[in-house]
Design brief:
This protein is mostly beta strands. The chain has one domain (21-206): Beta Barrel (Porin). The protein has 2 helices and 13 strands. The protein has helices spanning 171-176, 191-207; strands at residues 7-8, 29-37, 42-48, 54-61, 68-72, 78-84, 92-97, 106-112, 121-126, 140-145, 150-155, 158-165, 179-185. A hairpin with a 5-residue loop joins β5 (68-72) and β6 (78-84). The longest helix has 17 residues, at 191-207. InterPro entries: LOR (IPR007612), LOR_sf (IPR038595), Tubby-like_C (IPR025659). Pfam families: LOR (PF04525).
């Protein structure tokens, strides 16, 4: 991977719409993400705006392989579905619009950058650049995680979103599966896409 410069996506830059234009705002967004384990097999994420309004909810399996997570809007309509692809050293997900599994509804693929690394990192390939085995250039790159106290998403050399924990890190809250993230999304960046990436990176952290 190239070394990323310290530039940021700014007001006036073209929109980055991956999931949908309705998730792109012309101004920076500060979101709160709350995660909790509902039972031994399922967990639940809620995404709030600064006023406390729910923007997105994600439900799915907390453990196991071939996991599926579903993102819904406040009205309960499915926005996208994340599916982990089998057992492999470098974990991989396919993300489709709605509840679909069809190739024509594929939005993007996420693959762990390295199976052996102290820092969690993933590469993102949009549907039109989805041949992960042959393509050497990803469309986005994300790295970090809860235990690293940070998470950043890049498009080429530009930072498009960053995440931090909202309280002092403790392994107790982490192991209980209950913790919060503060997500800073840059202008014109698809926040549903950023949240989906955060959830998948969090999956890696919880399995490592």
């Amino acid at each position: 991977m190239p070394k990323y410069k310290k530039t940021e996506w700014q007001v006036g830059d073209p929109p980055i719409s991956v999931v949908g234009d309705q998730f792109c705002n012309p101004y920076p967004m500060e979101l709160m993400v709350k995660r909790k384990v509902k039972n031994l097999s399922k967990d639940h994420y809620q995404v709030f705006d600064p006023s406390g309004n729910v923007l997105l909810q994600i439900d799915g399996q907390a453990w196991g392989f071939n996991r599926k997570r579903v993102m819904r809007d406040p009205a309960g309509f499915t926005v996208l579905t994340m599916r982990q692809k089998g057992i492999r050293l470098k974990r991989k997900w396919e993300v489709h619009g709605g509840e679909s599994k069809e190739k024509e509804d594929l939005l993007f693929t996420v693959q762990q950058s390295s199976a052996m690394s102290l820092k969690t990192a993933v590469d993102v390939f949009l549907a039109e650049n989805n041949n992960v085995k042959k393509s050497s250039t990803c469309d986005f790159h994300a790295s970090g995680g809860y235990s690293n106290i940070s998470f950043k998403v890049f498009k080429s050399d530009a930072l498009i979103a960053g995440v931090g924990v909202t309280h002092k890190f403790t392994w107790g809250s982490y192991c209980k599966g209950k913790y919060n993230f503060r997500v800073s999304v840059n202008p014109e960046v698809d926040y549903a896409f950023i949240i989906a990436l955060l959830v998948m990176v969090d999956d890696i952290e919880n399995l490592c």
